[in-house]
Amino acid sequence: MPEKVVIIGSGPAGWTAAIYAARANLQPVVYEGTTTMPGMIPLGQLAYTTEVENFPTWPHTDSEALVHFSKSALPPEKYANIAHLYEGKSAHKGKRSATGPELMEWSRQQARNFGTRIVEQVIARVDFSKHPFVLYPADDAGVEQPPVEALTVIVATGARANYLGLPSEDRFKNNGVSACAVCDGALPRFRNKPLVVVGGGDSAMEEATYLSKFSSEVHLVHRRDAFRASKIMQERVLQNPRIKPQFNRTLAEVLGTDDDGVTGARLDSTTGGAPLELPVSGVFLAIGHTPNTDFLKGQLEMETTGYLKWTKPQRTNTSVDGVFAAGDVADSYYKQAITAAGTGCMAALDAERWLSHHGLI
Ligand code: NAP
Q1: Packing angle between helix 12-23 and helix 337-357, nearest 10 degrees?
Q2: 24-43: per-residue pLDDT in tens?
């Protein structure tokens, strides 16, 4: 029997689609990704985020209240995934908003509570040329699993962090170069040392602010003379004495040795000034994202940037009838957790109506 709805991806779009589809009695299956496949990690990009202040429902509250909530809402093995937020050295103290990992664990559980089935695999390739659609899962070692048939598919695979593509950046990945401050920022090699963050958007502001708690100084390198980020995030950065904006500069080379990893960064000027060499122990990239659509090439229409095309105004339809897209994978413009959740809801409703219209439910 083909599945009624298969959801690929497990960020806010995927879980919201699952909650709606499950409550509509469609018994959705979520392929939530694996930790070994870049860009297809369980819980999506929010798994790498600190406090989320702009997702309605979680104003600042005492961290203890969130501990109690997680303990009560989650099974022990899922509580264990976020226990470091509550216990030990990296525990959050005092009043705060809920973090990305908490929001996603709670959303996952909410979807599960209504009967969503969750598979810890990726979808490696698809065949949308026939109906039911055929999906080919793969496990965390990349080994292809038996195919799955689906009457409708919701693609919610999100986007992944970009790198500049410098050979020196590649050489020092995981040895001082990172695209995730939240994952790596607390490592000993970055503590009380100067760092570079590249980018001018909200991610760069967030990473610089976060890293300023651990490092001695953060050089925030931006290629223009003004940040793109929201005003509130910019102000936080500009008022932070440990963050030094380096406007009109680009990262030309990451400096270092194989033994020590990153020891410096050479910055070029975009306005004809002299290059600047900074002694730093880490370089964090925060220069936007690429949608996770490689496995859909030739199957669904995409923009030249790889983002999926929504083919009907105000709907989540893609170029293949019965396949819907939700969240950042089709949205290069808003890219917010709340908009991803919104389009996840829309995709589930679109899938339900499509199934009903075709007499399949
Ligand atoms: P973004 O808004 O697209 O910003 C990317 C930044 O990187 C831009 O400043 C861009 O410069 C720069 N950049 C891109 N390519 C570059 C290159 N090759 N060399 C040097 N610089 C380069 O991406 P984002 O900051 O990841 O944010 C994505 C979305 O998530 C946004 O909608 C943002 O609002 C949202 N977000 C929200 C929060 C929050 O509210 N808590 C946190 C993080 C992200 P230019 O400005 O010159 O183009």
Answers
A1: 40
A2: 999 999 999 998 877 788 99
Catalytic residue among 140, 183, 225, 260: 183
Residue 204 in contact with ligand 1 by CB distance below 6 A: yes
- Domain 163-287 falls in which CATH fold? FAD/NAD(P)-binding domain (3.50.50)
Q: Which atom of ligand 1 is nearest to the CA of 200?
A: 9
User: Residues 196, 265: contact at Cβ < 8 Å?
Assistant: yes
Q: 345 an active-site residue?
A: no
Q: Within the chain, which residue ranges are assigned CATH 3.50.50.60?
A: 3-59+97-160+290-357, 163-287
What letter represents residue 218's amino acid? Answer: V
CA distances from 286 to 26, 68, 119, 162, 237 (A): 38, 33, 30, 7, 14
Level-2 CATH architecture, domain 3-59+97-160+290-357: 3-Layer(bba) Sandwich (3.50)
What contacts 24+ positions apart, CB below 8 Å, involve 307-316?
307/331, 307/332, 308/155, 315/346, 315/350, 316/154, 316/343, 316/346, 316/347, 316/350
State the pTM of this model.
0.84
